[in-house]
Give the backbone structure.
Amino acid sequence: MHIYLPIAGLSVNMLVMVLLGGGVGLLSGMFGVGGGFLTTPLLIFYGIPPAVAVASSATQITGASVSGVLAQVRRGGVDFRMGSVMVAGGILGSGLGALLFRLLQRLGQIDTVIALTYVLLLGSIGGLMAHEATTTILAQRRGAKPRRSQRRHHPLIAWLPMRWRFYRSGLYISPLAPFLLGALTGVLTVSLGVGGGFVMVPAMIYLLGMSAQVVVGTSLFQILFVTAATTMIHAVTTQAVDIVLALLLLIGSATGAQLGSRFAMRLRPEWLRLLLALLVLMVAVRMAVGLTWQPGEIFSVERG
């Protein structure tokens, strides 16, 4: 069954959109990522205009994050103090991202910038994740004992002024570090339609040194509020949010996030990371191919 999307200006298969939302929600619950790094490219592949894909996927990420956060709160997996600092930074970053988005729209370069940035981000992060996961799996097969990772924040963070105690995360660091990290994800959320979790989760582990027990839940907590703010910003400034598309994605993502949280408790983390890395790299390659081949329509027309 097909349905017409008023803002996107085309008809889509309802089942395909719901399944897409469900798959992204599954990733959200399993890895603590918003899922927008896959939602937006897949919507573009399907034929949705990039600006509409970015704005509408932010709405879908909000729904997936609500479901995921509820599951994590029940397990005690959210550091609310750390998450609140990241939310404050994320809201500031959202405002900066909105200015950047509008500037690129006026210059007529928004489609190219979105695709090129995705290729660079997904390619680099997917490669690092694949290397780390593969190294761990090979070491286990050789019978090597896994090294106990010492949770220590990056030396640069120790130079930042002021220090707070984040008891749930087991940290005593400057709040400026999570604030700046939240601001970065806010910019990414507005300008690219990503939740920022695929950047935030590794940064929380390797830069901040947070406890693994609260990384996923705290990431989803921050993503929830920042994507909600992003949705309002896009609705007011760009008018690119297609509510029909967002609702179809939300229907699937809410259920998928709950299932993902359950799977994450049963599957081995190194294999999950490897699977996610392969998905990320596949999307990066597909978008790179799209940049090198001439499209059927060179210019995109948007509603004034």
